[in-house]
Amino acid sequence: MNRKQYAVIVVLAIVFGLANGVSTWVFKEAFVFAQKAPEVGKMEPNPSKVIVAEEIYLVDKDYKIRVSFAIQPDGRLGLHFVDGTGQARLAVGLLPDGSPVINLADRDGGPRTGLSLMEDGSPGISFYDRNGKLRAGLGLDEDGSPGLGFYDKERKRRANLSLLSDGNPSLGLYDQNDQVRAGIGLGENGSALVLSDRNGRLRAGLGLQPDGSPVLKLHDKNGSRRAELSLSPDGKPDLSFFDNAGEKSNGAEKDRF
Q: What pTM value is reported for the model?
């Protein structure tokens, strides 16, 4: 397993873009109730075939707003379905850039899940906790590769499970600074487990080569390979050392058993 394979596995992220505002605007109470509800009893008896309006409300028998349809000055377009307590529970809308979103809210009006399309047309589903913080996201990137991301209470990504463009699976574990610290994956030429430091530099990797032979590589703080322990196809062990430039050292620094 070469360094390029390790690099591919270490970069285990896909672009979700599901957090931070994509699916929250449609649940803002000020948007749903931006205008006073019409007095239904004073409506014309013969409705027009064409209605021109910036906002439309549907009310129940008690004149409570249950459905609203509105266009905001910034171009946001939203259709809201409201429960009996006045909370928007389902919203379908378009963002100013034309991106469509569908959102579901809990009984307190907080967003809990959203379906949206990114600018490149890639779909994504986001899941929020009771405090409205993103905790999980499922999406596809530009080439159609799927990925599942998990986030902590601070909305920081902590784990990603995805399929790479070549169809191979990978799992990445992140620290609080969004650095990949551990990763496991399959590549075209084998499988690997990699460990990185707090700066995201590769420090250790354990993998299987195409012939099934295991190899362990150790890297210094600059990411340069310094030691390698491997088995040949016939099971013979080999220990090699490398200089600062990553070149294999000779003589006493190499032991063959």
A: 0.70
Q: How far is CA 188 from CA 9, 170, 192, 215, in A?
A: 11, 12, 11, 16
Distance in angstroms (rounded) separating the CA atoms of residues 185 and 162: 9
Confidence of residue 42 (pLDDT cuts 50, 70, 90): low
Question: Cβ atoms within 10 A of the Cβ of 21, count?
Answer: 7
Range scoring the smallest mean pLDDT among 16-25, 51-60, 238-247: 16-25
Tokens standing for 200? 């995201």
Count of structural domains within the chain: 2
Cβ–Cβ < 8 Å for 133, 153: yes
Give the domain range for residue 38. Answer: 18-42+54-97
Residues 6+ apart with CB under 8 A from 231: 213, 214, 215, 237, 238
Q: Do 253 and 151 fall within a single domain?
A: yes
Number of H helices, E strands in the chain: 2, 18
* Model confidence at 171: pLDDT above 60: yes
Bridge partners (DSSP) listed for residue 163: 169
- Closest of 24, 19, 26, 18 to residue 122, by C-alpha: 18
Across-strand partners of 125? Answer: 115, 138
How many Cβ atoms sit within 10 Å of the Cβ of residue 5? 20
Contacts of 117 (CB under 8 A, 6+ apart): 99, 100, 101, 123, 124
Boundary residue ending a domain (97, 130, 162):
97
